[in-house]
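Changelog note: in this version the structure field was regenerated for every chain. One regenerated record is shown below for reference.
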Amino acid sequence: MIAKLKGRLDSTGIDHAVIDVGGVGYLVGASSRTLAALGPVGEAVTIHTEMLVAEDSIRLVGFARAEERDWYRLLTHVQGVGSRVALAILSALEPAELHRAVATGDKAMVARANGVGPKLAQRIVNELKDKIGAAPSGGPIGLAGAVALPAGSMSADALSALQNLGFKPTEASSAVAAAEEELGKAASLDALVRLALRKAAK
């Protein structure tokens, strides 16, 4: 699984960027918000990624921040929300705005995104409300009951790995925090994920 790319911004399009990593160009789909955050072509960039594997293709979707990637994962688990719609929502709303809209049941704000009608907006609010915490009053967003993990850190990557395997954000974050405490900050990602999996499965 490709969780992050670090290289040079080769080019950008309406809905994608090409990241040059050691001479290999990775085509990465992205929201307009992420594309705007990448900076000028030719500059060094780091982008968090989600790898989408289908029978006939492998695609990468990229995010300027790990929390945007977390919201993408939440959104695409809602029936009727595919990758394109999730990116449209993340183009229209900051993660904090989206969190507030879901927490307060503001379907009209969610429906501001292209391709999102009132019914789909209502479904997004209904399905995600129990998976997030209260509306943020400022500062970093955390999912309900989750231990806050620094974006882009080893622990954040381990958390992403567990969520990809189907663990709830609260279960995954608690398991990763416990594993990191036991192994120490110098632990490799592989060791951290393995121990977190054992703890989450208990």
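Spot check on this record: The longest helix spans residues 169-183. The first strand starts at residue 4 and ends at 12.
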